[in-house]
User: Fold this.
Amino acid sequence: MDILLQLAVESLLLGTFYAFMSLGFSLTWGVLNIINLAYGSYIILGAYISYTLYTYAGIDPILSLPLSFLIGFFKGILVQRLLIDRVMTLEPFMVLILTFGLDIVIANALNLIFRADIRSIDVPYAERSFLLGPLIITEVKLLVFALSLVLTALVYILLQKTWTGRSIRAVALDREGARLVGIDPSRVFLITSGLGTGIALASGNLYGVLQGFTPFDGGMLTVKAFLVSIVGGLGRVESALAGGLFLGVLEVFTGFYLGEGWKFFASLIAMFLFLLLRPRGLMGGKYYGET
Amino acid sequence: MSLLVVEGVSKSFGGNRVLKEVSFSLKEGEILGIVGPNGSGKTTLLNILSGIVKQDKGSVIFMGKPVDRLRPYARARMGIGRTFQITRLFTNLSVLENVLIPLHYGGGDADPGRAEELLSMVGLLEMKDRKAGSLSLAQRKRLELARALSVNPRLLLLDEVFAGLNPVSIREILDLLKEIHSLTGVAMILVEHVLKALFQITRRVIVLSEGRIIYEGEPEGMARSEEVIKAYLGERYASGGK
Amino acid sequence: MGRPEIAVLTGIVLVGFLPPFVSDYVERVVALALMLTSLALAQNILLGYTGYPAFGCIAFFGVGGYTTAVLMKELNLQFPLALTVGTVSSGFLALLIAVPLMRLKSHYFAITTLALQLALGELVANLELTGGVQGINLPIYRGPGGYLIFFYMLWVVAIVSFLLNAYIERSTFGYALKAIREDETAAETLGVNTVLFKAISFTLMALITGCVGGIYAYWITYIDPTSMFDPLLSVKVFVALLIGGVGTVGGPVVGAFLLEVLSEVLWGQFPKVHGLILGLLIVLTVLIIPKGMWRRR
Assistant:
């Protein structure tokens, strides 16, 4: 019983992080109808930025998180302008190939700079944990959980309460309709790309303190973001939370009962089956990318 | 014997009931017009007849056999041909290939001679090597007709063939349909907005409104039906306008 | 066949006379190019003619390769028999999943096949039968002809794939596929059994891809999950198609040779930044020649 409770708590902590991590992917997919295969390497890029800042300047990854977000925001706008805008009107699989190429470029560039060794951000609180009744709580996981929750809430508020958020949702629901009420979709695309990439890089800071990473871990993270997005449905914060928790439970329980080696396989099979059987997500879809 | 019998067909999309207990039948070689305001379920009915959409309830019987379990391609081979409201040609293929494909797969024989015969019937023979995507709207509609005829149909389903055409083209298509009918004796169901053209080719119409048949009979009777007036013009104009 | 197609076919056939005159290195590069040619032509049947992008086509490369390897290693089967079973297994897997899979379109279809490819890679990395992450060592071929035998096997598969594409370009069978590519609903209402022809098209792609995987496995004698289910290889297939021109018979051949030679040159010149340059090459291909060099007739 205790072990089940422990696993459930681990799932919750990890799942909430996955929810935040995937928000950017889900948002760009829902709003722009783009599946960004480079998304995972954006996260890894964030992890390396915070690694560098921590190792050479002593800046805590939590403190450098806003900086990662800003770098990501401008990078997202740049990539959208220079690359994705040009192929968005072509066959959708062209964007897949383009972003896959981008993924290779980022991973190999990181590999040139940092080598393929596993890096980790060894913050002083990395190993600390405390007992809570029968549970062992790792401080760093709790911290990442709390921050993910706060940041996810911020994104939620941004989407629900601000005009920028409303225009993003309007474009997601109906491009032509949004145009009619005076919203410029291409501007919204830029902002969404910026926001999405910013979230990816910011979540890289958190990922970096959670576990070690190499330049080539991006593909695996893209798959995770994909699974989170497809389980709940695209572009909504609530669905990302549902998807994140699903992935958290799947990974923690598969890891414990079948072994670490099966974790990624479980995610992939879940993704394959979801796409095959419920391509619109469990909650049904109505966003642009889902029709 | 009836060529086509539609029995109590109903269909909903989401919670929205598009067709409610629609029943009618069609004799061999008969021409039937289906009219009704936008959203009355006309195209859905055609989609159910050709098998693209499955009805929730009811049955479609073609040449004495229920076809509810048959996919569209099998219905095409039985002799149900159709055109689309917005033409769905194979735009990157040649005009000739657009006819050869249904001749082979729907009609059972990709005979180039027969293909040219069909193309000359619709007046597109000189364009047989052009890409279908390069045709004008009126030409596209003609090609769709030739394509539908390639499956050797006993029943033609025509979804707004006159829509978007100028009066001259409407006249030409009308003559073409009459010619096809007199040559092949194929039965036709025309879903139509252009009533004037429709009434020149059929003596029998069905009016759909909100998924229900509200009138069935000769075109002249439509103007006298209170239900029809209500459906087209709104409550206000019915019963002398209260 | 038109004149350009005959020229390309003549080219492939002539390549078969190269080995006595070139170094082992060049021979190897040409063999790799022939392999990519077959993979691109296989994908061309599906994407070019039927309109479905199987981004994870290398799933079947892996299945063919691993089945062949496991049969040779565990059951001591002769290579021809093992390769046959490997090829058929790939096709059978494709046939099994084709109907539900091909209800998906466009990038949903693409990503689902990619998920399958990665999942199968993880599966063999976890199974003892397939040697886990360590992979499988195959016996070294010592029969007549030496390593040249693999060159000629890949050569034959490339020619067969080319002829199959040429047949599809001209035949009524090809009409069914093209009709699906152009407008699936219209094709169906005109008598084309789209479910059947989509499944055939997918299975043909898997058969060729699986066969190439089986030959490759025995050729390099050592396989592991990363090399047999490599997403980079999937992308190379697509880039070769894009460079050459999707939906043409000659294009994929030209694209595959160009890409393979180009990446081999890059590999030799800049070994350290090879991956980086390949990535940039992919990005540039999509941006510069999104429609391919070889236009569809």
